[in-house]
Amino acid sequence: MEKPIIYVLSDSVGETAEFVVKAALSQFISDSEYTMHRIPYVANKEVLRGVVYHAKQQGAIIGFTLVNPEFREFLKKEAHEKNIECIDIMGPMIEAMERVFKRKPRMKPGLIHRLDEDYFQRIEAIEFAVRYDDGRDPRGISKADIILIGVSRTSKTPLSQYLAHKRLKVANVPIVPEVEPPPELFRVPPYKCVGLKISSKKLNDIRRERLKALGLGDQASYANIERIEEELAHFESIVDRIGCPVIDVSNKAVEETANVILNMTNKTY
């Protein structure tokens, strides 16, 4: 017996149609026992007519996901006239939703794949933020959309993650008086860098609470006000060298700071 032949048509990639057809076929035969031809990005009726012709010659089945209603009706009519089994995989669902939602569909092929692309860009950005967190690899600076710079406890890491969920690749670099910032920081366009400024009193409060949470005394130099002022002065000298914008995060939530940065990037790009 010859292998069954199935044509899968779509005005997008055709993955949805292929998946559904394969799921149905699995109830009857294994992968090796049929031949499938996927025809993506159908753009005219000639392609549809050609598929119907070949399907008739080969005794094949057609499954399709066509958003364009004109293409759907044309294919169904051609297949019916040639007595070919032709399955509209998505059309009935779209028509039912149109009735229930009482509005017209967008009629744009491939929207689900655009959503998938958005998802994968977000995941890529999140992985980027983790890889280039806290200055651990200066190579990320030249690849980043945004570089956050600031002293310890200015919310660089949570900000990086928040912005990553907006599909921005963010690296962050801690500023410490004893450590010269990586030279890459002074080579990127200044508008890509954002300095995170904070008041010495606020930072002192945050660091003392941090030490308490770790079960340590609050007398360490980490929470010493003189040390903090030294760090902040060094931070100011670095952002002056770079010439980048600075945001005061003293009384801002992460979301507020992120929104300021997003507004800045929208104006820049």
As a percent range, the share of helical residues equals 40-55%
Largest β-sheet summary: 4 strands, parallel
Computed Rg: 29 Å
Question: Which strand order spans the largest sheet, edge to edge or round the barrel?
Answer: 2-1-3-4
The low-pLDDT segments are: none
Distance between the termini: 61 Å
Give the beta-strand count. 8
What structural class do you assign from the helix and strand content? alpha/beta
State which percent range the strand residues make up: 5-15%
Q: Figure out the total of helices.
A: 10
Mean pLDDT: 90
The H-and-E topology, N to C, reads as EHEHEHEHHHEHEEHHEH
Shape: elongated
Describe this structure in words.
- The protein has 269 residues and is of the alpha/beta class.
- 49% of the residues lie in helices and 14% in strands.
- It is built from ten helices and eight strands.
- The protein has helices spanning 15-25, 45-58, 69-81, 91-101, 111-131, 139-143, 156-164, 200-213, 225-242, 254-268, and strands spanning 5-10, 35-39, 61-65, 86-88, 146-150, 170-174, 193-197, 246-248.
- A four-stranded parallel sheet has the order 2-1-3-4, sandwiched between helices. It has a four-stranded parallel sheet with strand order 6-5-7-8, sandwiched between helices.
- Helix 2 packs parallel to helix 3 (69-81), helix 5 (111-131) packs antiparallel against helix 7 (156-164) and helix 8 (200-213) packs across helix 9.
- The mean pLDDT is 90.
